[in-house]
Every structure is written in structure tokens, then in C-alpha cells.
Amino acid sequence: TQSTQQPIALVTGASAGFGRAISERFLRDGYRVIAAARRMAPLQELQRRHGDALLPIQLDVRDAQAVAAVKQSLPEAWRAIDVLVNNAGLALGTEKAQEADFQNWQTMIDTNITGLTLMTHAFLPGMVARKRGLVINIGSVAGKYPYPGGNVYGATKAFVAQFSRNLRADLAGTGVRVTDVQPGLVGETEFSLVRYKGDQERTAAMYAGAHPLRPEDIAETVAWVASLPPHVNVNAIEVMPTSQSFTALTVTRD
Ligand code: NDP
Ligand code: 8X3
């Protein structure tokens, strides 16, 4: 049964991976969840399992008109969003910059930067007016630590990190909180399958023997951030599997 006392979370990219795990975790914690993604079938499947506490929304976050339409058409009872989770995102390819397909770069910029800023721009004013709200942006360790082939993907996540900090600067005194969650290697999502354009073997090799994080670990982190009292803001949180660490800087020689 619905109650207006229940907090509301809007999660983008809820059809798979972290977004689905975050949505399910919020539902378990008593939230109502607006679950957005391009593919409706997995969202409808979620709704079949969770009922009226989940509102599935078909949305391509890259599309400014579609984002505006979602904002306009949300049912009255679903408008006071407490937590916006900007999770929709992707990496495409690991080619070096000098060999990369520009269309892949464009898609990452459109989704990870334009999509995330469109959603934030649409839903932030309501949070400020209500003097309450939390924006959780899903960044990445790739936004901090460079690696070969990470070029534009990592740069989009560096944007997410600085945008998150700058949001905090603008939101000072409003009561609205912002967190950048920066995961490392996480398996059991569609991330690598998307990045490697459906190459199952390469995807399996990425995680073999690595004991990567699981989507539920990220959902746990997001749930913890959202559970903190209103006077606590986690600016950023970086989470890696124990198996993941750092390499030294490299030097090429003649
Ligand atoms: P998945 O590929 O499993 O999920 C990505 C989700 O984003 C899907 O639900 C997809 O749904 C959605 N999505 C993609 N493009 C759009 C779009 N244009 N509009 C709306 N939704 C979109 O990946 P993960 O769950 O692993 O990744 C989620 C986030 O976490 C991403 O931002 C990613 O960069 C980040 N991340 C992932 C890590 C990992 O190792 N897995 C580590 C660090 C960060 P649909 O196709 O239905 O639209
Ligand atoms: C995903 C983590 O290291 O594959 O953001 O770029 S990584």
C-alpha cells in the first residue's frame, strides 16, 4: 500500500546492473521508486515483482525533451522526489584515443554528462523548494585514476566528480545533499558486455578470478548514504573490490 510518508527515489538506468539493485534495495528499505531506463520490459518485470511501490518510466536521459516530459507528467503523488540517483551511464570501447571511434565518445558524453546534468537540472529546483533532497551521482574510480583506453569514459566520470562538488557549493544552505559514489570493478552487470559490444569471452575474462564487487555492494553503499541523518553529507565515496589496487606510473624507454 502506498503512503505519502514513504520517501521517493528516482533511479536512472534501473533496467540492469546497479540501477536495478539500487531500486530493489530502496524498495526493501520502504521507499517508493521511480525506475527509469530505455528498455521497458525489465522495468515492467520489476513492477510485477514489487507492485505499486515502483513506477516504471521509459526514458532516454540524453533526450532533453523526454526529460522535461517525464518531469511534467509524473503523477502528483510521485513528484516530491527525495533521492535522485543519476546512475544511467556506460563505457564504450577501450581503444587508445588515437584509434577510438568518435561516435563512442559522443555517446558517452551524451549519456554520462549531458544525461546526468539534464536530470539534475530538472529535479534540483524541486528539492531546493522543499529544502530537502539528495542527489547521488554514480561516478567511477575511472574518473580519478587514468588507464590506457579510459580516455573519454574516465573524463566523463571526472566531470561527475567536479560537478558533484560544484553542486555542493551552489546548494550550501539549502539542505540538499550531493554524493559522488565511485565504484571500482563490479561484476554481474551489463557494463563490460556493453563496453565490449557483446563480446562474452572478453567480458568473462575481465572478471575471472577477480572476486569483483557485486551490484548489491553498490546498492548497500547508496542505501547507507541515503540513510544518514540530514546534517550528514558524504561528498564522495570510493569503493573497490579487495582484489583491485594501483599500479606504478610507467616510463617508456628507447
Ligand atoms: P549496466 O550496463 O548493467 O547498466 C546501465 C544502465 O544504464 C542500464 O539500465 C541502461 O538501461 C541504462 N542506460 C544506458 N544508457 C541510457 C540512456 N541513454 N538513458 C537511460 N538509461 C540508460 O551498467 P552498470 O550497472 O555496471 O553501470 C551503472 C553505472 O555505474 C554507470 O554510470 C557506469 O559508468 C557506472 N560504473 C560501473 C562500474 C562497473 O564496473 N560495472 C564501475 C564504476 C562505475 P537501458 O539500456 O534500458 O536504457
Ligand atoms: C568502471 C570501472 O575501471 O572499468 O567505471 O573503468 S573501470
TrEMBL record:
Pfam families: adh_short (PF00106)
Gene3D superfamilies on file: NAD(P)-binding Rossmann-like Domain
Keywords of this entry: Oxidoreductase
UniProt feature coiled coil, ranges: none
The UniProt record lists the keyword Oxidoreductase: yes
Origin: domain of life: Bacteria
Family indicated by similarity: Belongs to the short-chain dehydrogenases/reductases (SDR) family.
Name by which UniProt lists this protein: SDR family NAD(P)-dependent oxidoreductase
